[in-house]
Design brief:
single chain, 22-stranded mixed β-sheet, about 65% strand
Amino acid sequence: MNTPGTVRLTNTIIVANHWTYHADDFDLKYVTGGTKYHYFLTGDQDGTGVQSYSTCHTLPAASIPACLAAGTGRQTYPTRYEFDYQEKEEWWSHEINLISTGDGPLQYVFGAFLYHETYDQPVFTQLPDETRLDGIVASAVGGLAPSAPLRRIYDDRPHFNLHSKAIFTQIDWEFAPKWKTTVGLRYGTDHKHGYERVRIVFAPGTLNAGLPVDVTPVLGLAGGEGVVSTTYDPVSGFKTRLYDDKWSAVTGTLGFQYTPTEDTMGYAKYSRGYKAGGFRIGIDTSLGADPRTEKETLDSFEMGLKTNIGPTLQVNAGLFYYRYKNAQVPLSQPSATAGGTANSVLFNVPKAESKGLELETIWQPINNLQILANYSFLDTEIKEGLAIDGADSCAQAPNARRTRATTVVDAFCAGPQFLQDLEGYALPNSAKHRFTINGNYTWEFDAGSLTGSATWVWRGAQYGSIFNRSYYKSPDFDQVDLRLVWRDKEDRFTIIGYAKNVLNDEGYANGATAGRRAGTTPTFANPTADRTGVFGQNSTFELNPPRTYGVEVQYRFF
């Protein structure tokens, strides 16, 4: 790299307040707080130390370092490429609760919630040594465009406001000995509005050998629901898109709890959840099509048992079934051009289900020794949905599930993009099996206590996309962590020594991401001229940290 990376956080204010008025049979509680900050991140965009390269633009071929007679002559392109990413955030929330405090069988909570957020995310990339960006800039629709200020070839300036309001209540009623029911109800609204100003200029050597080309006028040709307007300013060269939409939902819960003994409790519960819709904007979208995401709703059914078996063993077991409507999942949508940037969206899966179980055990065979063993099983399935695979836009990979062709002709594979059937695929990052075993022992001393702990975790393979293909799959892995904690007798300070991933195993934070790639392979008839296009996918894995160790010291002033 030839541009050093920097990161800083300025103008940071965090405020939190909690006020409670205690009456005879109820509390009136007010919770409010907010955060404000300005975050900066700069660095090397191309990830190399190469300063420039030279090539010849010829028809039909180019030779390096010599130029063919039919060429336009040698062109030199500076490649020092930098990025600047910023976040300017402000949010504030208010919540007021009326909570019963009596001893009767009926307990209640009534509340209201208010939230406001303002968000700016200016992002740009620049070629600081490319002087041709200061001069004539051609427009993709013909004619000329303004020059590129500060030699920025990508400039995106989103600004958004978010407003959330809700009223809610929950009532717990012990209607019979050992029996309790819970009823909750909530109504919430979310309003999101703002704008996004974007300019993209292709550097010389991409669309034109010697001139930069402004492609901003052809961005954002499709907007869809929630897009108020899209306008282009020929003076500044920026295109601006306005967004505005609202979402609301009534949600709630109904549950029953049975406690036959002091050591056993069973429960069953139904809940409906809601996640507001929104707009996918910013650095990875470039005024892409269909930026709006519909709200997601979830119907949750759960039942479980918590019990103590004898004086040393505790067992918690739970079963659940989730039913999603319009589940929001990240999805990369490919460009129709061979070298174009993919558009990232939050895709709504029309229908999906998730079911599984969780088992937790705590065994204390002797004083000061604990052994914990947990297991979870998760089975997710998409029941309905069609989408384009960003890593296989023309559905050419083996076992691709072509349904119907779109009207978009993809230059990458010289054919139409195809929708694929999602039915039967798992939701992203849903490993079926996960085991965790922990053992810890505490030694007691006059001056304090020392606790040693060892943890082993195993996680099964999972996919990083709604397309369950091999190029999105990360393998299973396991990891061992160690921890040693000293606490003084007065509980004023704690010293923690830790070692994570002790065996330095290769682990994966999520399933893989993938992108399409193209290449050529020579034929035997004419290895230097005849070539056949080949297509494939490249996978990217997010690795867990390697072996990491350190010391943490905590001190409590009061």
